[in-house]
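Q: Joint fold for the lines below.
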Amino acid sequence: MTRRPAILPAPFAAWFAARGWAARAHQLALLKLAQQGRSALLIAPTGAGKTLAGFLPSLIELADGEGSKGQGLHTLYISPLKALAVDVARNLETPVADMGLRVRVETRTGDTSASKRQRQRRDPPQILLTTPEQLALLLASADGEHLFATLRRVVLDELHAVVTSKRGDLLSLGLARLRTLAPDMSMVGLSATVRDPDELRRWLVPQRGSGEMAELVVAAPGARPALAMLDTRERLPWSGHGASHAIGEIYERIKASRMTLVFVNTRAQAEAVFQQLWHVNEDALPIALHHGSLDAGQRRRVEEAMAAGRLKAVVCTSTLDLGIDWGDVDLVVNVGAPKGASRLLQRIGRANHRLDESSRALLVPANRFEALECTAAIEAASEGAQDTPPARTGALDVLCQHVLGMACAGPFLSDDLYAEITSAEPYAQLPREDFDDAVSFVATGGYALQSYDRFAKIKRLQDGSWRIANAKIAQAYRMNVGTIIESDMLKVRLVRGVAAKGSRAGAARGSALYAPAKLAPGAQPAPYTGRLTRGGRVLGEIEEYFLETLAPGDTFLFGGEVLALQGIVENEAHVSRAHSDAPKVPSYAGGKFPLSTYLAARVRKLLASPKAWGALPAQVSDWLGLQQEKSLLPPPGKLLVETFPRGGRHYLVAYPFEGRLAHQTLGMLLTRRMECMGLKPLGFVANEYALAVWCVADVGVRAQKKLFNMDELFAQDMLGDDLEEWLQESALMKRTFRNGAIISGLIERRFPGKQKSGRQVTISTDLVYDVLRRHQPDHILLRAAREDAMTGLLDLERLAQMLARVHGRIIHKHLERISPLAVPIMLEIGREPVYGEAQDEILADAAGALVDEAMGG
Amino acid sequence: MTAGMDDQQRAAKGCFALHGEAALPDVSGALWLADHGALVVSDLHFEKGSAYARRGVMLPPYDTAATLGRLADVVARFSPRVIVALGDSFHDGGGPARMGDADRAALRALQQGREWIWISGNHDPEPPEDLGGLCASEIRLGGLTLRHEPQAGASPGEVAGHLHPVARVSAPAGTLRRRCFASDGVRCVMPAFGAFAGGLNIRDEAFAPLFAQAPVIAHVMGRSRIYAVSMARCLGD
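A: Joint structure:
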């Protein structure tokens, strides 16, 4: 007998009972809060019925009849992934159909047809599942007010993942507007376990200056995951991320399990691991590939095959990190560095959606440093430690986009809009001047030289309200909404090369879902000589800058196949299937996460405590033992800097463990400073753990003779003038600025009627950056780029914290030869791009070649 | 070139022979014809920012000032007798009218005490009114013909702009894309001088009919000097 009839109505209780379930405590707690009209955050592990908990109050209210009489939108569900929205809609069908509820559930994503979108505005479903971008679009239209007036409830899925990005900023602003349109609605946020739940609780309710928070419901934790690190039989590599040494062992585990998810960190790794697995796949197990560059149709086929249990394993990137239910996964393999404890736990959550059984996960380090990181992550996970990133301050470029969107919805008064925007948690501290600057930016670009008044996009009327100047501006806004800036991508289209003639091509097509097409051994594709046609299938999209490094005929890995570039035709790369032993692997920009600060600290601690090395593979502890003998272990709280000569050059290697981005920035600034000190640096290379600089001058001996001071070299003031000077030229800063220029609406990605690709853009944001820096250095977009650089591509914040931490605590060790700890980073030289102030040296190099040519006749 | 300077000294300064005349490509993107005391700048595209703003793309309104500032620097270094603006000096026909007072004054200051010649271009076929200087569709200086748009086929001694050449150069240390002068010693295409002017890769087919025979050199604008790079070494986009 149920003890809670007052909360759970009979048909619902019966539905649970029929399935052999009982409503869980957190589901009922959330229901009770919803019935009181309170907003709440639910923290629950995967498999705890989180989504059902989020929708139960809405279904009950709608079943009550409220829904059938009150036409109109009742519940809005927002997910960071289109696929997740579609998946949840499908899952909702079950209770709705089983209980015969008269509730219409629909999705609205970028894939929804224009006619269906029209109809949804006119005749909305009671439950609409959508994405942050679609919400922004709905709110920026004149009928948004009418559409959302009936809204009672908002469900935000995977909230922990959304709040860490600019998409989260945009969503928070949209929610602030929703609260204005439907003051009585309540919100529920669904989240995995996070470091600081209060940050998310503030997100769900309007901020009025005293840190207001939503209620908190925490579900019972699931069974502890069974985590293990692969203690490989093979030699653990010094460096690299391919994990090719472990492919055989991974394959054995796949064979022994029902279904395995193999997570990797980058799309390049996904391609490489997939290819190698197929190389050893003697049993022809159905192993598939899933990453963000593949054609959406192909990804969907893999997802469906997975859900139907037709696959044995899927190699995937973070595209499968979020909570889509993928059927019967019983093993998660994480290849490479876990990067963060929370990230690892969420990935493991993909295995075994049943709460009471522990999920099994195998960590496979690709090199020795990653073995340290894996060990630290396993320890952190077993303690339940969380290291999700801290909440962000709302970005100014997103604010600009939102202000224009609100003008498209209808005239606004500055005071009202400012009050609404500062009720959103990320913008709660937004100074009024910044808001006014954003409005001025939207109107005329926000320039001190006010010469654009007559061209204004929004205009202030007599009554003080702002209104868009014409309908074309709203149209342009709608085409450019969103905060995701992709690199310029080219479609990859399969065309028939000469070699594709005959039966082999047909055979390859048959297995296209998951098998990489293999050419018969020795079959070399003949050079393509025919006309390039548009006939073939689109395999996906690839970054333009990668394709730029290829010449026609070069081979590369994509979608698990070896492809040969035939040529680039407009915005498409035409390729044919090929055979090659050494295809290039695209070095995608996307998909690299920095090592979390928390995990970095644990790795440093582990390194410094030989007593804890028992948890490490013997190869790794032996290596560290050797380091202890030959040099030093990085002492806790200090920065170890080693110097040694090698091959006629002098090396300086530092071990900050702060992630590749911060190390890159440090390398740029350090080499500038070394230049000034006369140390003649030639270049540097950075990885997640260390930084190596090589010089002409004997940097070690000079430091020993006190000709310069290590503390001075690493002094915090490098973030002052040195940084300013470098930022002027920094390509990373220019890319950051470009993203802000697009998000804020300064530069349009798409114009009505056509979409421009990178090749056609008529104005270079680099030129705009140069001019703006010189003439109005405090412009809102430069401030926005600066703030992004703190946490984004330059990771300045983390670098600043590190420099402060090691100030006066630098241990310099001068060595006769390379230390064991330095081997991995030294091996990256030649494999990773070399950085430095190379600018004019590149030209000098090329000009030198001209002289050589001339002299050689 | 001034008397007493032999070929070697000229070459060391980056000077090259252009159809028998000495031409010095300057790091700013201007071409210095010392024997004529003439400084040539091409594709200034004044008021490109405001031309975009008219269509709702609010580019910074500082491009004209930035371009004039750079021009003032190079004028101070060479003290030319005549300045030739090689066409597309304004981004569009309405440009001269939109030019602000401060920028007008800066332009007048540059014209002070020397000749200023506006060559007409496709963006600005009509000469700008009330902005001083003389107007022409092309002029001759010794063996050189200065016009905006390069003519198809052989055109010995032509100095033109219009195409905004840039070179993509690669070396082990990385890849750069920079504005450049393109010349085969017979004719020359100048880089755009305007702050917001874009670029066209010299490997683009638009350049192919101009340089049929001799090896083509890209005089690439570095940070502090010009680098002569063989076009064969330059990459396409």
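Q: Anything notable?
A: DSSP finds 33 helices and 27 strands in chain A. Residues 1-5, 498-534, 753-761 of chain A have pLDDT under 50 and may be disordered.
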